[in-house]
Amino acid sequence: MADTKKSQHGEWSSRFAFILAATGSAVGLGNIWKFPYITGENGGGAFVIVYLLCVLLIGIPIMMAETLLGRRSRQNPISTMITLSDEAGADKNWHYLGWMGVTAGFLILSYYSVIAGWASAYVVKAFSGSFLGADASSIKVLFDDFVGSPIKLLFWHTLFMLATMLIVVRGVNTGLEKAVRFLMPSLFVLLMLMVAYAMTFDEYYDKGIKFLFTPDFSKITADGVLTAMGHAFFTLSLGMGAIMVYGSYLPKDVSIAKTVYWIAGTDTVVALLAGIAIFPIVFANGLEPAAGPGLIFQTLPIAFGNMTGGWLFGILFFVMLVFAALSSSISLIEPAVAWLIENKNMSREQACIWSGSVTWLMGFGVVFSFNIWSELKIFDRTIFQLLDYLTANLMLPIGGFCIAVFAGWIMKQQHTEQELNMPNPLGYQIWKILISYVSPAAVFLVFLHVVGVL
User: Fold this and answer.
1) What does the DSSP assignment read for 258-313?
2) pLDDT tens, 17-39?
3) For the chain, which domains are there?
4) pTM here?
């Protein structure tokens, strides 16, 4: 099966195209928005070391597993799990893993596009000079006025969803691949410009580098270790169907292991570069590195508005944030689009209209949760908080755990060996140990933590 089957959607033109696409899926708001502030909250350098170890021991083995599942089946995640469980002689209920991944990506995009719309709006705000000379109170008023307006949020949510679907509707080669070939190099150029700008802050740049890379293990707590573990898992887009469906478009002669090393390495470098770019700006302006989620939308605008060159680099920063979000959003919707095409006999245009419209409509609830429905709570959470908790804290860890178990324990060894095709037998044995024991145990610990057991 694995040697002859082709995806009906086509293939990436090269390994480099897949690396760009999968890296684009992984590199998103989590790298540029979330990584700096959770590093700030957890003491800096020691947290970074723990995070890197988690990427190596958890993220990479599971990403290899999810990619090989997709390539072996050449189908959407739901059909993949049906096909591969039949091949392994396993329980047919494994198809629920595919359903959970597709659903998770769908739900994530419904709120991801709203937050990405914020970044898009802030490009315009930065360009118009809204941050110039602003203090903390005026930036807070600006932010509160923005999120308090359903019309403004709906406009930017709609615009971002349209951009996402216009790329996805064009297919693998002329849509997804062409987009990431532009978005990812542009993202790196913008990020390097931000790093170069941060270097002009002299002693504050040195302070930022020291904070990021000098470990103080006395600041590491059990909670910090689990946070690093969870972020390493989530930042690589694991458990949401994206890597599985992208893997289904991967040519047979491409090494999964080498490719995943590049993706995980690039994703990690982007996160570190984001920290290098942001922390000197934070320190130079006397801001708090542990400012939390507000670091990007309520803290950095103060800095950009009161520093030399801040107008230009504020624009560049939020453009970079939009590019990162867009490269991820196209991967979040692709599994649902692929399933509709393969199982409901839709054209790609029809599949995009249906999936995009439903996601867009679901985003209304997220938009309203910041204003007119802000008092509406489900299980003591707003709609946005509920979707974020349900996906990031429950669905993705369960998905990652099940992927590890299926690849490590359910699939026949000859099939995983065939897909990975690692020239060094020791390399395969290391992966087998990690995916069978280390990765599922670690993800299980993360799951216990997020549900409050640990």
Assistant:
1) HHHHHHHHHHHHHHHHHHHHHHHHHHHTT--TT-TTHIIIIIHHHHHHTSTTHHHH
2) 888 888 888 887 778 777 887 88
3) 15-450 (1.10.4160)
4) 0.91
